[in-house]
Task: structure prediction
Amino acid sequence: MTTYKEIRGSQIEAVSSDPSNPVEGQVWYNTTSNVLKGQAATTAGAWSSSPSLNTARDQIAGAGSTTSALVFGENFGGETELWNASSWTEVNDLNTSRRALSGAGASNTAALAFSGNLAAPSPNAATNATETWNGSNWTSVNNLNQARSFAVGTGTNTAALCFGGSTGSGGNPPLSADTETWNGTNWTEVNNLNTARPALGAGGTTTSALAFGGYIHPARQDLTELWNGTNWTEVNDLNTARLGLKGAGADNTACVAFGGSEPPATGKTEVWNGTNWTEQGDMSNGRTYLASSKGSSTAALAMGGGNTTHVEEFTGAGAGQTRTFTDS
Result:
């Protein structure tokens, strides 16, 4: 019988802790847990449960990655929670309490919060307030040009994109197609979406982004638009029309869309490959107006939504996963 050494050119390594960056096909014996493990690639995207938020919420925003995330806002609140890859911790609140806001940022130490519906002094009024997060505190900075709620944001705290939404009180019309870019200091108006709508999802950067889903009364939308840094172009639609969904992705060639309301609230998940959407495994808990991490279509967090504390982690097709071997 062929041995592992004959195949790989080395014996199975014995280590006290799992390797930090294993490669596909690597096998090792963990002497601490006394189990044999290996690195495999997933064949399809799937969700797994993650530790819950401290506060149930919806109409919220998020930033960061699966190991360094931030979630903020809720039901006219400013509550902020920080994820350090093992637990959620309540930290300092936003300066402007609001719901239906947008967010951007690559980690839990550098994020941007903007737009939303105000708690006071004019409840439900759309706001253009913008704040930056430095890992400890929120600081008010230059505002969006257009006040709105239920818009969507993507990018980082120094290079962000905001588009869509509603300029009316409480998310009501008029609807917005307005697109703005953030350079770390100011917002600049650029070319609009082709179709004005609120409650949509997004992924990507200021030069390469994707907008999908949303709402135009009375219908949920499956519309998808691609941003190339200058213009929006309509491309192939989502398989499931919905509002209040979220997304993640590195650019306009690789994004994941999840959650929202058809109705009812759904956990449906779709992955974009630059041309088409493909359905993946659903979230365990269908919910709408949730928050998401920003970075990748193969590694994303779905946080809160539907006034719940639920958090789930998405591992995309082809992404590496550590497996434990058994004798069964």
